[in-house]
Design a protein that fits this description.
Shape: globular
CATH class of the largest domain: Mainly Alpha
CATH architecture of the largest domain: Orthogonal Bundle
Number of helices: 7
Structural class: mainly alpha
Distance between the termini: 33 Å
Oligomer: single chain
Strand order of the largest sheet: 1-3-2
Strand content: 5-15%
InterPro entries: HTH_MarR-typ, WH-like_DNA-bd_sf, WH_DNA-bd_sf
Protein name: HTH marR-type domain-containing protein
Radius of gyration: 18 Å
């Protein structure tokens, strides 16, 4: 019984509930009118920030499955936000934002920034530290997941 209480009220549980709530809020207030889901905008923003990113890097950086990224990229390519370029010997396809995709990401990014400012109004100035801590947690969880996959594959 104690374990269930710890899991239900633990830091990671609260973090997951918070991110789910924020994602739903942004999808309702900004992205619905743009006919886009958070995962699609997130991938587009990532590709805009790092042109020539390979598909596998998008998978790794977003923590999204390869199959889901394929679906997301199909939407972004169909909407002419992203173009795929065939990789050279042994390298996967690279992704580049189109001018339409860059303009869209910039415009919608400003709307999301407006929502971020509303949500974070009154939060102490330590938000930058929180961002660094959350980035560390995300990187650590990706590293641990990769180690678990390697151990599972070796078994």
């Amino acid at each position: 019984m104690m374990y269930e209480s710890c899991v239900r009220n633990g830091l990671l549980s609260q973090l997951c509930r918070t991110t789910n709530s924020l994602r739903a809020h942004l999808e309702r207030t900004v992205l619905r009118d743009e006919d886009l889901r958070w995962s699609e905008f997130d991938a587009l923003a990532l590709i805009c920030s790092e042109p020539n990113l390979q598909v596998r890097a998008v998978v790794a950086k977003t923590g999204t499955s390869r199959a889901r990224i394929a679906e997301i990229l199909a939407v972004l390519v169909q909407r002419e936000f992203v173009e795929r370029r065939a990789g050279s010997a042994g390298r996967g396809d690279s992704l580049r934002p189109t001018p339409v995709g860059e303009a869209f990401a910039a415009r919608v990014g400003r709307l999301i920034g407006d929502q971020e400012r509303l949500i974070l109004a009154g939060v102490p100035d330590s938000v930058e530290s929180l961002v660094e801590d959350l980035t560390y947690v995300a990187d650590r969880s990706r590293d641990l997941a990769a180690r678990a996959r390697t151990a599972r594959d070796a078994a």
